[in-house]
Amino acid sequence: MSARTTALDAVIFGVDIQSGDVRGDAPSYALVVFDGESVERDVVTYRKLRRRIDAETPAIVATDNMYELAEDKDDLVRFLGSLPDETRLVQVTGDEQPEPLSRVASRYGVPYGKDPMQEAEAAARLAAGNVGYEVSAFTDTTQVKVSRGRSTGKGGWSQDRYTRRIHGNVKKRAREVESTLTEAALDYEVDVTEKYGGYSSAVFSVDAHPADIPLSRNRSGDTRIEIERERRDGIEFEPLAKRRDHVIVGVDPGTTTAVAIVGLDGQVLDVLSTRTADMAAVIEWVVERGRPVIVAADVTPMPNTVQRVRTSFDAVGWEPTSDLPVDEKQHRTRETGYDNDHERDALAAALFAYDDHEDQFDRIARKTPPQLDLGTVTAKVLAGEGNVEAVIDDLTESEDEGEEEHEHDPRELTQEEKRIRDLERQVERLDEHVDSLESTIEEKDERIEELEQELSEARREERREARERRTVTRLERRNRALERDLDEKDEEIEALEGKLKRLKELWKLDHSNFADVSEKKKGLVPVKPVDKFTKDAIDAAHESYGLAKGDVVYLRDASGAGPSTAEKLVAHEPRVVIKDGGLSEAADQILFEHRIPVGPADDVAMQEVDELAVAREDDVKAVIADWEDRAEERKKSQKNEMVDQIISEHRAERGTGRF
Question: Residues 488-500: pLDDT tens digits?
Fold first, then answer.
């Protein structure tokens, strides 16, 4: 024991089952508390053992069988997860294939007895001497999670502001955690979940044990911090004392000395090159990294410096049949890293030595049983202590000496102990159920918060899309209305263009220059219609297309006009008036007196163009000529009537005797 480093920086708990079974009846445990000097012994229940571990946080809980503390693998993982961050579980009898405690205690000179209390003390003293394997279900990576400490609520007018405040505080707390980890010089990666106003969570993956992280679990206001170690895929065992494995050493001596370490599996473990260190320092460097079974050189014969290294370790030497060519050394070391040619040569020597013994190593590995150390068997075979079978037989016989198996004989429990056992078991089940329910509630709350947040975001998105749809619908209606207006305007423009074209043609007919009028349209005269023979109709026609001197005016309805209306028409000095309907005597007299020809529309062949019309010039002239004939007769008739009236008046005067 004196040759090993002690583990007594703190208290060690040695534990062995006293009675009962962790898989059935509630067990009791023999507990030994060892601090390197004093020993405390006690018999405790499982619950009391857990309480003492939590309260006293021992450095190690040592046992000869980890499954005395847990029913199965899952239960063991839960037990490991519940230990304080400073406490390790150590199985002193080995890793996956433990040895009997009696054999391990005898090997290291630790007092041993069959009594559970004696076994618990032996486990504690072995762990104090760094004997055993740490049982681990977690990696050295710890997750620090910063998240919301309360629900964001179910809505309301102030929900957005409330949610923004919580997420803002989570982001602020995450930055504080990041600053703390940076100041502690810890390596970490962070994964944040951004939400409205900040973060909903931030998960830091820290390359450190929870005990080395200057943070603690807490819940304060809007935020909370959870610290959990990262789970491994299974259960792993790590020896308390780092073992020095058997290795192959390649040496390249000279002004710059280079040394390479290669494992018995062919993996490059380390490489060194130095100009200042002496051979003693080089040998010490090798000792720290393993126990050489082969020392190799890249040239033949083996240099004296390499021979001294070989003899200092009592290792087998290896040298090539001829000096290794540079190209072969480069090819063999192409997948390894080295800084200079000296390191390359040392690596090549070790790797070629491994290649030369690879088949032998594989044969030894196949024949060596799991309970024996493969490196020890390989070293003895290489040293010529016998063939594989002989070496294995020799090691097996030495291991079997003094071995003694034993079993605990649990005593019968009293009725009171059974009652206590049953009640403790019930309490444990209830506690576990409460923990499970609380965990479920917490998960449900978090899920509800996430769903409510998603629902709120979905509603906002739906409202935004509804607004967009309404806007699009409104714009589409407006667009259709504008398209209809545009179609109407196009139709109106088309009609006006046709009308303009016809008006231009009428304008040409209405002027004395007929040079640009087609032969087809010569002999036509424009006619300007007036709907009724009223002052308003005359004004409307004049406003629409103008009534000018010499125009042919067409009265669609000539009836009902009085002298003043006739006077208004006379003022425009038309060339001729064509009429439909009867003309009053007063209007006819006014037109006659002003020498305005009047004729029936039936005598003129007219073609109406929109508001205007055209007629044959010959027909118009015929109407004028007819009116002139009738006017001449009318004048004669009026003159005759006047003569007759004068004669009648003269006769009347004679009859009264005035003469």
Answer: 998 888 888 877 7
